[in-house]
Structures are given as structure tokens and as C-alpha cells.
Amino acid sequence: MDSFYSKNRDKLLSQMPENSVAVVASGEEQIRNRDVEFEFRAESDFFYLTGFTEPDSVLFLIKRSDDNQAVLFLRPKDPEQETWQGRRLGVDSACKALQIDQAWSIDELDEQALVLLENMDSIFVSFSQLTQWSESINAWIAQLKQKVRKGIAAPSNICDLDKILHEMRVFKSSEEVNRMRQAAQASVKGHLAAMKAVKSSKYEYQVQAALESEFMQQGSPRVAFTSIVASADNACILHYTENRSKIDKNALVLVDAGAEIDGYAGDITTTFPASGQFCEAQANLYSLVLKAQQSAIQIIKPGVTYDEVHQTTLKVLTAGLVELGILKGSLNDLIKREAYKPFFMHGTGHWLGMDVHDVGDYKKQGEWRELKAGMVLTVEPGLYISSEHSDVDAKWHNIGIRIEDDVLVTPKGHEVLTKGLPRTVAEIEAWMAKN
What we know:
By secondary structure, the protein is α+β, with helices and mostly antiparallel strands. It contains 13 helices and 21 strands. A 6-stranded mixed beta sheet has the order 6-5-4-1-7-8, with helices on both faces. Strands 9-12-13 form a 3-stranded antiparallel beta sheet. Strands 10-11-14 form a 3-stranded antiparallel beta sheet, covered by helices on one side.
């Protein structure tokens, strides 16, 4: 029976021209400090095609007129290294375990690459990683060109694999959606744990500990990205990850974090009062951001363009800022001259999948692409008013709010994968009082 990963390989091969080879690597371990490595995570494209998680691995997908092949290069078994660093699958077990046609030691990559590339027309590699491949590809082609008098031809085209593979990854299969539902719900449980922990926590990292502990309890071996736990004015820093400040009990706490399950990411942002009670200014701004988010989610369905979701957010946020007295002027003029940008400076969302900022084009031939069933995107409007906004009433200062959910486009509409969180001011206050 074909696995999820072999089906992905077959689909990719079906879109490649004859006499072409796709080359995809898992990546290498990176040193954190001295002789300690960062935790290794295989490159998403490689995992999507193999389900294999070891470093120093390379996949060749070969399409010929009469035969397709998947060939994997990986680390050989090494009892001494495995004693220190952990078990390896090894060459002998790879074909059966991964449904691969051939397996070789990574030490034989250069030698076997010459065999696999003989008389092939094209090599497909990710152009985002082209600098990593250029030396090897140049060497392989140069050596094959030296065999021309033996009737052997070298590839003459270097093509961007991303155009095919990343477009495939934009549309999630039913198995991928199931994994994303699990990641989303594990993320929901983590955010609830963070809301529960804030009252007894003195520092941001203590809330982070409760959040990520719950991710693991829900079956997530790692976070999908570095967690953000930002109290008060720290929430006005979009990618604040220090998480070391003392929590201001009169301020809001913004948590942007997601669990990863089976290679797929959840991505949620919650904003809640450390005390369990919003003050009036916090409640007004929060309700505005929520209104913008819910308005954007409501329109998501096939045929709506990606930018329409963002424009919906802009209209609601800008109108609300006028109503609260933070902006002055006509709605259309304020939007035209981007008067909202000091307070809302990012997009409304992004694709979500194996990567938290997942691959895929947002425009096609210069036009914003239409949403289609199988796409997953985040919806995450925000407002950020720091003390540096000296022209804004001080009651709004040091309030950073973002609200984010993960949304699947379905054939007739949408499904919020991250349902289950208290979202309104009243719901949050009631949940925190109860828990």
C-alpha cells in the first residue's frame, strides 16, 4: 500500500518532464555552541517526500520515459556513532522502511550521482537552496561532459523545483488536514494552559513553560516556531521572543505559539489580561481587533481573493480607530494613505502547513490568487500602540493585541481548525475567573 510520502513523490514525478531528476536534501545538523548541536529538523520539502528525519540525507527522484525511481542517500550504520548520537536507519533497511527503490550511503553520493544523471536533460533543485547545490551540480555536470565521446550526455537545464513542489504543498490532502487539525487542537490546549498559568506566573518564560509543556502532553514533540510570550509593551514588538520580562499584572499578555505534530504546524495568537480583567481601553481595542478578525474569517470561501481577506481587516480596523478617536478623517482617505500602518503594520495572515509561514505564491501573473478548497491560511489582525506614539492619548499606550486562528478553505466555505478558545472579552474574563 502506498504511503502518504510515496503518493507525494508520485504526484511530483507526474508533473516533471521526461529525462529529469529532482534533488532534495534533508539538511545538516547545526552547531549551537562548542560541540552541542541544535535539535535537528529535516527540511520540509524532504520530509514531505520521504517521511525521513535523519540529517545528511539526499533524495533523487528520477523520471525516465520507461521508468521512475526514488533513490535515497543516507548515513550508514555506525555502532560507535550510534552509541553516542542515536540510532540510524541505515542503508539496508531504508528501501523497505521508506518504500524507496534504491538506497546508498551518503559517502557514495558523488559517485552514484554521475550514474543517475547520465543522459538526463534536466536537474530540478530548489532555487532557494541553489547556492548549497551549485558546487556539487557543477562538478557532476563537468565530469559528465568529459564522457561525451563515450556517448554520454550531461543535463543541460537547471530548473526550479519550488515552482512544482511548493504549489503542490499549498493544497492539503485529507491526511494533511487531519494532521493540521491535531496540531491546531494541541495548540489550543497549550494556549488555554498559558491563560491558566498567567496568574501564578511572575515572568513571561513561566507562562511559556506551561504552554509548551501542554503542547508535549498533547503529543507535540516540538514547537512549530519560537514561542512569543509578551507582556505589556513587549507585545508591540511583533517578533518578540526573549520572554524574560516580569509580567505586568495590569497589562495584557500576548501569546503567539503553535505546536507541531507529524511535521505540520499550528499557529495561534491569544491576547488576554494578566489579572483576568480587561480595563476599558484594553477591552475596546481588543473588541475591535476581534471584530476585524471575525469579519475576515467570515468571507473566506473559494473564489475570494487572498487580498480581499486583508482589505476586509483594514476597513474594520481603520473604521474602529476613527470611532475610538485614534485616527481622524474619512475612511477611504485614511485607507488610501495607509494611516493605519503605525498601528497595524503587517499582513492579515499567511499560508500554513509544514512551515509556519508556508510555501506557495500569493499572486499569480501579478494578480492576487483566489482561495480554493484545500488551502490553509492564518487570519491574524492586530493593533500595537506603544508609548512612542506620542500623538495618541496615553490611555492607549503599551497595548499590543493580535488574535490569530488557522482556517481551512472548504469546497463551500471554511473551517476554523483552532476552535475552542474563549475569544470575546466576556468569554475570556469568565474563563479566567473559572480556571
